[in-house]
Amino acid sequence: MWDYPRPPRLDPTDEQVVIVLGGTVVARSSRPVRVLETSHPPTYYLPVPAFLPGAPVPVDGSSVCEFKGRAAYFDVVGGGGAIAPGAAWTYPAPTPSFAALVDHVAVMPAAMDRCTVDGEVVVPQEGGFYGGWITSRVVGPFKGAPGTWGW
Questions:
Q1: pLDDT tens for each residue of 44-103
Q2: 119 lies in a domain?
Q3: In sequence order, which residues have a C-beta less than 8 Å from that of residue 41 and are 6 or more positions away?
Q4: Closest CA to 91 of 66, 125, 116, 123
Q5: What is the pTM of this model?
Q6: Which CATH number covers residue 55?
Q7: How many Cα neighbours within 13 Å face the side chain of 27?
Q8: Cβ atoms of 24 and 79 closer than 8 Å
Q9: pLDDT over 90 (residue 143)
Q10: Of 8, 66, 98, 104, which has the fewest CB atoms closer than 10 Å, so is most exposed?
Q11: In a domain, 146, yes or no
């Protein structure tokens, strides 16, 4: 991932992505879009229809990415009443270079029971701020762990 670009690049993929919360598959897609950025594992954005109805619940708050624009956040609701507060986000009106992210949602894998890519369980990016998905195909080191903020 050190050869990933900066600014980030969008990478549509046909990988099968599954997100589980509260023992329930809350999202499944074979049409995600990955965002690839230097020093970060990929972040997967799934089309809104990939989520169970009511799984992403809009909440207050926003943040700004210098490349993608202003993000809006969601709680993710899973089975058995499981809730992952503020664990998903979208870009309702992204910058022109990231227009393909409209109507797509990303989740923090650390807040889910399990996320998989083509059947492989994802290791969440450390740090609680970034939403990267680490699989065996992605080589670090990655931003997020203690001491990595200044890279």
A1: 999 999 999 999 999 999 999 999 999 999 999 999 999 999 999 999 999 999 999 999
A2: yes
A3: 1, 125, 132, 133, 134, 135, 138, 140, 142
A4: 66
A5: 0.92
A6: 2.170.150.40
A7: 32
A8: yes
A9: no
A10: 66
A11: no
